[in-house]
Amino acid sequence: MKQMLDFLRPAPPTFGHRVRAGARLLSGMGRARLRGRPFMLSHLVTSRCNACCPTCLWRDPDGRELAADDIRWLYHQAGAAGIVHLVMWGGEPLLRTDLPELLEAAQQAGLVVTLISNGHLLRQRWPEIRGRVDALIVSLDDAGTAHDRQRGLPGLFADLDDFVPGLRSDPLRPKLLVNTVLSRLNRGALRRVAEVARAWRVGLYFCPMETGRMETGGFAESLGHLSLPLSELREAARLARLLKRSGYPIMATDAYLELLAADPDLTAYTCRAPRAILTTEADGSFRDCLRRDRSLATVPQMRAAGQTLDTLFARPRYRAMLAEAEHCTACNNPDVIEISWLWDLELQMLERAVGLVVS
Ligand SMILES: C[S@@+](CC[C@H](N)C(=O)[O-])C[C@H]1O[C@@H](n2cnc3c(N)ncnc32)[C@H](O)[C@@H]1O
Question: H or E segment at 127?
């Protein structure tokens, strides 16, 4: 509650843009929730990537991506349907040369934008995206050259370490966060990235790695050999709780950390994620999260047929996915679990929603 009230205090004038974005986000989320509609569009803006993370389930050598016109249509439709938050990821979004135009389209559609990036091109492209992104999540698998090795990008950590902390003095800076995926490839990294996040004065998200995806025939696991044993995930949850209590900027809610410590397989939640999040894959297909091999529809098809997102939301298959997802616990990350709690109006999550953009 205290954090929620902090939100009402006058913010320093230079960060007024973040307060406005936060207020827009919260009121839009409230409206969408009342209508039972998604408030977030998760968009893989490309499947091309300049890194080669062994844990990745989304990079695609064919480099699929929608044309800018289709993306403008998508963002306009999203805004018109009451979606208020756009998360751009991929693949590596900074590889898209038309990113500033896409960000402008998002802004015109009234969307609050979070960008997830490996940051390799951040210094170079910062002037183009400055002031157009509300939250920036930089991925960090470890500290120092261990991070570079995992990403296959020599010099990446040193460059981020040199550039990211300096952004704090920029009045148009977005909310800054880092994200760390825990796997067998970065054992012990949580403590190291927590030190980095504290030094950079940014929030730290972490999650156990996803090992596959739900398909028509059931869970198709391709990367199970890289996931941490449950005992180590339980240890990571305990460590995160200790770090959080000691003032490290761990973003996970206490409720998520408690669940991860008690049930590291993360099966004790009711998934509302597809109710809250509409996901568009790099090729423009709207994700059926229980049958990722069969899309619900595609952006080019819907655009050509003159349909709106309301058509999609009315489809029996879309409604069936929402209902079936409530019995699925295949996902283990806080995005899915915490957003499900947010949908269910859990207080910790309402507080976190305020803190996401405004700090
Ligand atoms: C797929 S990347 C795309 C955006 C961008 N290229 C980047 O690296 O941040 C988005 C996030 O997913 C994380 N990630 C990679 N493999 C993962 C996995 N198997 N399970 C969960 N997250 C994963 C990355 O570390 C990154 O933070």
Answer: helix 122-129
Write the DSSP string, 46-87: ES--S---TT-SS--TT-----HHHHHHHHHHHHHTT--EEE
Choose which residue among 53, 142, 151, 185 to substitute to test ligand 1 binding: the one with the highest number of ligand atoms within 8 A of its C-beta: 53
How far away, in angstroms, is 35 Cα from ligand 1 center?
Answer: 31
Rounded to whole angstroms, what are the CA distances from 301 to 4, 60, 296?
42, 22, 11
Which tokens sit at 223? 């990367």
Would you list the domain boundaries of the chain?
2-357
DSSP class of residue 91? S
Phi, psi of 10 (to 5 degrees): -60, 135
Find the 325 Cα to ligand 1 centroid distance in Å: 22
* Strand-strand pairing, 40-46 and 277-280: parallel
pLDDT tens-place string over residues 290-342: 999 999 999 999 999 999 999 999 999 999 999 999 999 999 889 999 999 99
**Hey, what's the torsion of the CAs at 261, 209, 121, 137, to 10 degrees?**
-30
End-to-end CA distance of the chain: 14
Distance from C-alpha of 301 to C-alpha of 297, rounded to nearest angstrom: 7
Q: Is the pLDDT of residue 10 over 60?
A: no
Q: Rounded to the nearest whole angstrom, what is the distance from the C-alpha of residue 83 to the centroid of ligand 1?
A: 23
Rounded Cα gap, residues 162 and 155, in angstroms: 11
- Please give the CATH superfamily to which domain 2-357 belongs: Aldolase class I (3.20.20.70)
pLDDT at 358: 55
CB atoms within 10 A of CB 239: 18
Paired residues of 88 in beta bridges: 43, 115
- What does DSSP say about strands 135-139 and 175-182: parallel, antiparallel, or unpaired? parallel
